[in-house]
From TrEMBL:
This is RNB domain-containing protein. Residues 442-774 form the RNB domain. It comes from the Eukaryota. GO terms for cellular component: cytoplasmic exosome (RNase complex); nuclear exosome (RNase complex). GO terms for molecular function: 3'-5'-RNA exonuclease activity; endonuclease activity; RNA binding. The keyword GTP-binding does not apply.
């Protein structure tokens, strides 16, 4: 055993570079893991057999799809390589895919060698040193060693040659030993890149080091490029330090989401903002998951200069729009792209990205297929970026394949759970029984009347409730949440997988689970007539829903009924039903209404969305009907007690863990949009105030139109779009007043009630258990920086899940209208743009645009007929499929009444 002092640069809290030193104990007996070795004591289940492969980082990252589909098995990967990819897995889909492969090591027989603690891999290139050690180790083997190093690095090839180590480029290896079909995964070859002449409007990038210096001097500006979904030629960046938007008219080979350096064009090429009528309240646009609360990008602070201050004063004073050109890509967006092939060109499903050049040996096999590709390069001589095939997803138009495209485009994991993850489940499987020892550690609530109320067909039941009358006009109310943390232990394979997925994603026709189905639909799901483990919050409250006491504890429950919302509502409304369960639900409903009124009195908002529900044909499985989602009082009943539980838990965990709690905050709304809505409502004769959430809530209550129940809901939907996104935060990063949840008018709020489908709730369960001294807090959760990064990832995944659900709804709406040509429905005008109006069909929650002549902010003319905003009109709905891109069109019908 040898002791070595290793030093490593790290950033401190002030972002200064510090050298951190630590002692490392080096070992000479880390095993080789080769089957039949007479020297090593094998410590892993993996037993390597010939041929054995070493792969460098570039091979792993750039050719991971080829590796997965090839005969490259028995792979030795360095622990330092694993650390490299783990560090990048949150920002890079490529790195995440490498980690997925490593963690599924039984399939490819992957052995992780602890090079950081090996005396054989110090003071040099560890891959070369490891290959050398394996070569010298052959004397202990019963068979001749066949070791192969794959790298694109010229120096490593030379070193390997000198040490008599077999070494190949990935291209040479595939051509010699693999199926020729795998050549399509290699991308472009050198013969393709002969013409090196730049094309118009494309010029070489400035070196990154020079860019960084010019950014600091204020000569260049840094930001993430955002490209318009409907017009790829329109792009912009937002410079945070100056709250400035710069439009880009020379994109110079950028992709949406790239972090770029931009040089301003001369001022005579800028534009003055045109004052135009635009009254519209669109839903938030999708991003690529990079807009984190705490970005991991290296953001370079601009030194404030008199020149810059003068420049931005001029921009504001003259209402100018600065224009710029991209001079360097500082960081490419690292994601994969789904789409189809058309005339040997890859066409992405996402309209913000350009068409790609794809080299493939059999283009005819890709026709009518949805495929996934990986960006390779965008040379200066090409008007399109280059890509290589990642995988063929399946036939275009197939509902299941289209669903997969939606999931992949929104970075949702669709692979099966690994062997290591499944190994974390109880070995008894669905025959698992709660032990008597475990029951003794918990509150035994199996004799209490507990039930669940969920949507029809819900299988992953997170929550149940109970209520019983006490003496002195008091009530005991309990919320019992699935105890997922009992099965998902910290830092296990299943915990890491849940932390990666973060959330269950719901599409119209399916869901993609955060956890294996044995947990989500069985052992954790609080189904009726079965003993289940729960984490309970129990209040004592009076008949006005004022809380007198609260306690938290782990419990065992036995639900007596798994109800759906309509079923529970019918029980409440049936005067002949006076069963104990019905009386309990009526008490819950009475208290829920009091709780809701208390929230509204505090300023909580009651908003709305255009969520729709689909019905399906039993034979074709196509949508047969689509309607706005119907809500019952029982929806509100469940919501109120879940909100109360989340608030109570938030207060408890913050009191015990003030710097590492995971809370959910909601900042004030977008005031500019609310101001526009206020002006519009005032023009219509309504009082509309938004100085506080309570005034906004009262204003919304007063906006009514005779014989039009949808109008109030529409204004609430528009108000929802003026809201900022609620975000998970680590309390170390936010001052106490900023933890406020605006929409709920709650000082503190968190997510506790859905641990089957949200990883945030699993973290909160662990915090709550530690706060009442049931369990110790995992050491990993005491790291503030790590908790901040987890919250960033939770926000990204939550956002992507929401967008995926919306995309699925859009796709099924398209399918519904596809089989109903010239469908005529009533629509309401919801907004005014420069030359068109936005409309919504209330029945379907469907939105679109119609060309119009704009008179003023209230009045328009459509085909010679005068209308006002919020008028009802008749529209004809049709759909179009162009290059596999689905579009819904609305046409004004002149016979409007």
């Amino acid at each position: 055993m040898k002791v070595q002092l290793n030093s490593q640069p790290r950033l401190n809290k002030r972002l200064q570079v510090m050298i951190q030193a630590k002692e490392v104990y080096l070992s000479s007996d880390i095993p080789c893991q080769i089957r039949g070795c007479a020297f090593c004591t094998q410590e892993s289940e993996i037993q390597l057999e010939n041929p054995i492969f070493l792969l460098d980082n570039e091979i792993l990252e750039q050719y991971i799809d080829l590796i997965e589909q090839s005969n490259i098995n028995n792979i030795v990967i360095l622990q330092s390589q694993v650390a490299h990819f783990r560090k990048r897995q949150q920002q890079s889909q490529y790195a995440q895919q490498v980690i997925n492969l490593i963690e599924s090591n039984f399939q490819k027989k992957i052995y992780v060698y602890q090079d950081e603690f090996s005396i054989h891999t110090q003071n040099g290139n560890p891959l070369i040193l490891l290959a050398k050690w394996y070569n010298e180790h052959r004397q202990f083997l019963k068979v001749e060693l066949d070791l192969c190093l794959l790298t694109q690095n010229y120096q490593m090839h030379q070193q390997s040659k000198n040490l008599n180590i077999k070494c190949f480029t990935i291209q040479d290896y595939v051509k010699l030993y693999e199926n020729n079909d795998l050549l399509d995964f290699l991308g472009m070859d050198e013969e393709y890149e002969q013409d090196q002449q730049p094309i118009n409007n494309q010029f070489p990038y400035i070196q990154v080091e020079e860019c960084v210096q010019q950014i600091k001097q204020g000569l260049l500006f840094e930001g993430r490029i955002s490209i318009d979904r409907n017009n790829i030629k329109q792009a912009r960046i937002f410079v945070k330090q100056f709250q400035l938007e710069i439009k880009i008219n020379q994109q110079n080979r950028v992709l949406h989401g790239d972090r770029v350096a931009v040089e301003l064009l001369p001022e005579d090429q800028w534009e003055q903002q045109q004052k135009q009528i635009q009254i519209t309240f669109d839903e938030e646009d999708e991003d690529d998951g990079n807009n984190n609360t705490h970005t991991n990008d290296t953001s370079h602070e601009i030194m404030s200069t008199n020149h810059l201050q003068s420049l931005f004063r001029k921009v504001q004073a003259q209402n100018l729009i600065p224009y710029g050109k991209v001079v360097c890509v500082l960081q490419r967006t690292e994601r994969h792209f789904c789409g189809h092939v058309e005339n040997n060109i890859f066409v992405p499903a996402d309209g913000r990205y350009p068409n790609f050049i794809l080299k493939h040996s059999k283009y005819d096999t890709l026709q009518d297929k949805k495929i996934q590709v990986q960006f390779v390069d965008w040379p200066i001589w090409s008007d399109k970026p280059l890509c290589k095939l990642k995988k063929v997803l399946g036939k275009a138009g197939d509902m299941y394949i289209e669903g997969n495209v939606i999931l992949l485009e929104h970075q949702v994991e669709i692979r099966e759970f690994s062997h290591q993850v499944l190994a974390c489940l109880p070995i008894e499987g669905d025959k698992y029984k709660i032990s008597e020892q475990e029951i003794k550690r918990r509150m035994d609530l199996r004799d209490i009347l507990v039930c669940s109320i969920d949507p029809v067909g819900c299988k992953d039941i997170d929550d149940t409730l109970h209520c019983r009358r006490l003496e002195n006009n008091l009530y005991e109310v309990g919320v019992h949440i699935a105890d997922v943390s009992h099965f998902v232990r910290p830092d296990t394979a299943i915990d890491k997988e849940a932390a990666h997925r973060c959330t269950t994603v719901y599409l119209v026709d399916r869901r993609t689970d955060m956890l294996p189905k044995l947990l989500t639909e069985n052992l954790c799901s609080l189904v009726s007539n079965v003993d289940r483990l729960a984490f309970s919050v129990i209040w004592i409250m009076d008949d006005q829903a004022n809380i007198k006491d609260v306690k938290f504890g782990k419990s065992v429950i036995r639900s007596i009924a798994s109800l759906h919302y309509q079923q529970a509502q019918e029980m409440i409304d049936n005067p002949n039903d006076n069963s104990q369960l019905t009386q309990s639900i009526r008490l819950l409903n009475m208290l829920a209404k009091k709780l809701k009124q208390l929230r509204l009195d505090q300023g909580a908002l009651s908003l709305a969305s255009n969520q729709v529900k689909f019905s399906f044909d039993d034979e074709t499985h196509n949508p047969s009907d689509v309607r706005m989602y119907q809500l019952y009082d029982t929806n509100s009943l469940v919501e109120e007690f879940m909100l109360l539980a989340n608030c109570s838990v938030a207060s408890q965990i913050l009191q015990r863990f003030p710097s590492i709690s995971v809370l959910r905050r909601h900042q004030e709304p977008k005031m500019k949009q609310l101001k526009e809505l206020q002006i519009l409502m005032n023009d219509l004769g309504y009082q509309f105030s938004y100085d506080t959430s309570k005034l906004l809530s009262e204003s919304l209550d007063q906006i009514q139109r005779p014989n039009d129940t949808f109008f109030n809901k529409l204004i609430r939907m528009i108000t929802t779009r003026c809201m900022n996104e609620a975000l998970y935060v680590c309390t170390a990063d936010v001052d106490y007043p900023e933890l406020y949840h605006y929409g709920l008018a709650a000082e503190l709020y968190t997510h506790f009630t859905s641990p089957i489908r949200r990883y945030a709730d699993v973290l909160v369960h662990r915090l709550l258990a530690a706060s009442i001294d049931l369990e110790s807090l995992p050491p990993s959760m005491s790291n503030k920086i790590r908790m901040t990064r987890i919250c960033d990832k939770l926000n990204m995944r939550h956002r992507m899940a929401r967008f995926a659900s919306r995309a699925s709804s859009d796709y099924h709406t398209y399918l519904f209208f596809k089989n109903r040509p010239q469908q005529i429905d009533q629509a309401i005008i919801t907004g005014i743009l420069a030359d068109k109006v936005t409309v919504m069909i209330p029945r379907y929650g469907l939105e679109g645009t119609i060309e119009a002549q704009i008179i003023d902010r209230m009045n328009i003319i459509i085909q010679g007929i005068r209308h006002r905003i919020f008028d009802y009109i008749q529209v004809e709905v049709s759909v179009e499929l162009h290059s596999f891109h689905k579009k819904i069109h609305m046409k004004y019908m002149k016979n409007n009444k």
